[in-house]
Amino acid sequence: xxSAPLPAAPxxxxxxxxxxxxxxxxxxTHANAWRQAGTVYDLGxxxxxxxxxxxxxxxxxxxxxxxxxxxxAVGDWRDVAEDPTxxxxxxVVGNALHREIAEAMAAAGKHVLCEKPLAGTLEDAEAMAAxxxxHPDLVLATGYTFRRNAGVAMLAKLAEDGALGKVAHLDxxxxxxxxxxxxxxxxxxxxxxxxxGALGDVGSHLVDSAELILGPVVEVxxxxxxxxxxxxxxxxxxxxxxxxxSASADAPKEAVENDDVATFTARFASGAAGTFSVSRVxxxxxxxxxxxxxGTGGTASWSLDRTGEIQIADAxxxxxxxxxRQVLVNPEFPYFGNGSSMAxxxxxxxxxxxxxxxxxxxxxxxxxxxxxxxxxxxxxADGYRQMRVLDAVARSAASGGAAIEIA
Length: 407
Known about the structure:
This protein is α/β, with parallel strands linked by helices. It is about 30% helix and about 25% strand. The strands form three sheets. The protein has a nine-stranded mixed sheet with strand order 16-15-14-13-7-12-11-8-18. Strands 3-2-1-4-5-6-17 form a seven-stranded mixed sheet, with helices on both faces. Strand 14 and strand 15 form a beta hairpin. The radius of gyration is 22 Å and the shape is globular. The model is unreliable at about 1-10 (pLDDT under 50).
């Protein structure tokens, strides 16, 4: 009996070492993604060395390093910058820290994958985008993982292929409840100017997904930014981003600085209209994102609570049997075919896998793999553009909903 041939050896054999800065919820998801990146799609990625996890609260770093198999935990991100053996860094900390860390990592010759939004301010985002000109040899990317969701990517494909006719309208919602409890302690998410709260946190994902589907937004209008909870208790210990932690009602309070809710409309370069709504105080909705694309020849929708399917209505239904129908994510969808170990309809996907696909794409970029590669990650310039859209929304709200063109 002849044994099956062994898989071909990786084409790029020099290892790439990875560190993650930030060991909260998203930081641990990045740590897992680097560990899993070589298990999906074609062989040929360089071996990945899981070098270090850094967090200002060292016990968080130690816990994540132990769980995900990283060699060491450190309490200062500067230790990562100074380590010449580390090639790639994920930045997964408060937005206000992104610029300083990214500049230090780029100066040290390290490739950087930075969580969205790119920075805490538009000025910092502009400076980070400029790093791409200063360091053309480095891959500097912004983490918009929903680009890798099979259902979202299928909506984009349907729109691009004309399967929905002329698209007139996109409706986009991202509603969360992580800030609904007024006893959730103050954290970096609740600091910064209006527009950097719910809009910057989850609205950045929403705008990126909308532009993936319909192309660039050229104008926003009718914006409202609402602060529902004006103060929160001071945290008594280390917390990870202000999620899932409460304090006593009699704890000292500190002012919330930014927005809990944002709504606005948009105009795409195609002429289509967009309606957007985000919240971090939506009780009972821990993580609800939904996109609906409405065209003259079809309507398609996707939501994060049913991420293994899309809903679609088009002219292919028999006479009298039209209306929205369920289509399960299957190997014909982008990303799914070789991105799941059980690639058939009904298995579904989860949000965590998007990070794995993103890590795989990033490693391909660093290794210079182009043949059959996944779409590249969003650049720092892309992240800066998203920040300009969000800034325009904030300026529209400050101007009573005035129309603001995207510069």
